[in-house]
Amino acid sequence: MKKMLAAVLHDFNDLRLEEVPVPEPQAPDDVVVKIKACGFCQTDYKAIKGIRKNVTFPCIVGHEPSGIVAAAGSAVRNFKEGDAVIVQPTGYCGYCPNCRVGKHHYCEHAFTTGGDGPKDVWDGSFAEYTRTRECSLFLKPPSVSFEAAALTEPLSGAWKGVILYSETRVGDNVVVIGVGSIGLLCMMVAHAAGAGRLIAIDSSAYAREQALRLGATHVIDPREGNVRDKVYAIMPDGPDVIVEAAGPVAAVNLMLELRRRGTRWNIFGITTHETIELDAGLEHFMEARMDASFGTNPLAMQNAIRLMERGVIDPAQTISHRFPLERILDAVQVMGQPKRNKVIIEP
After folding, report:
1. Are residues 28 and 109 in the same domain?
2. Which of 29, 37, 28 lies closest to 62, judged by CA?
3. CB–CB of 278/252 below 8 Å?
4. pLDDT range class, residue 261, cuts 50, 70, 90
5. Are 190 and 125 within one domain?
6. Nearest to 156 by CA among 36, 240, 64, 45
7. pTM exceeds cut of 0.90
8. The domain that contains 25 carries what CATH number?
9. 149 in a domain, yes or no?
10. Which of 9, 18, 17 is nearest to 50 (CA)?
11. Cα end-to-end span (Å), the chain
């Protein structure tokens, strides 16, 4: 039996590099992909550190991969061995009512490779190979690097939240709260969509510097002065769109403070169960529209690939660190540090 190197999570804070069997197709539509690059998502870090509890051990996390088809089941028709591919971390049935209306990320029979969400969790991509299904694969354009391709899923999530749901338009005033790696992608999407004024709010000087480099017109340190006053000094009419990409509930509360009538606000970054208070009467008269966005679907993935292929957005610009799989523990340490953006694992 062929073996491969993988980072196996045996318990919270117990990540081990081990030799494990190379996966093989188990169903006719299964595909095995040799991993070339895999993004290190904050949800992977939360699973490793025990911040996210819905984890079954042992497991292999990592759900933002690109690679090359190594083996395919007998029913696979659209991909062949040697194809360079992008892997959507979730798979879907295509037949349930949610899939039929294009909400594949709501699929009643979904699975995920190394990620969060569905109950059916397959081993992920902090490994030399991973198994998925044909429905989760997209051909990688030759002009897109494997590193950039590995960031298709987070870029697609940013597109889905900022464009599809919050409907950012040319000239909109946009505020992004929290500009870590996913916040930067949300900001880059808003910039590409033609945001007029684009404010990045983050307590990290490093994050604010990166935001200015990647398209923000203004940055604000939330620890200095009244944030609402600062935002409205830049945007006298107030924000058209606010995206919370930070995670803590304090960021959601700040978003509430920054709204004006008609603001479209998106709860994007918070994934823990926290409570906020809303004045129902005020909400009625404000007509501020709340959206949220989690996960991705084929529509969003295809649009993210189009953004990369056409040179509109290069998500690789958000990469700050690269590690071989053998140094996965060093990557975990970096994930806990403030001066980093996207971390890439390269088996």
Report:
1. yes
2. 37
3. no
4. very high
5. no
6. 64
7. yes
8. 3.90.180.10
9. no
10. 9
11. 20
Alpha helices, DSSP H, located in the chain: 42-49, 97-100, 146-150, 152-159, 181-192, 205-213, 227-234, 249-258, 280-286, 298-309, 328-335
Q: Quick one: 8 and 77 in the same domain?
A: yes
What is d(CA 10, CA 160) in angstroms, rounded to the nearest whole number? 33
Residue 272 clears pLDDT 90, i.e. is over it: no
Q: Is the pLDDT reported for residue 147 higher than 90?
A: yes
> Is residue 116's pLDDT more than 90?
no
Tell whether the model's pLDDT for residue 102 goes beyond 90.
yes
**Structural domain for 175, as ranges:** 158-292
- Counting the structural domains of the chain, the total is 2
Sheet strands (E) in 140-194: 174-177
Task: Indicate the length of the chain as a whole number.
Answer: 347
Peptide bond into 118 cis (omega under 30): no
Shared domain check, 136 and 73: yes
Quote the CA–CA distance of 145 and 315 in Å, as a whole number: 10
Mean pLDDT of 295-303: 96
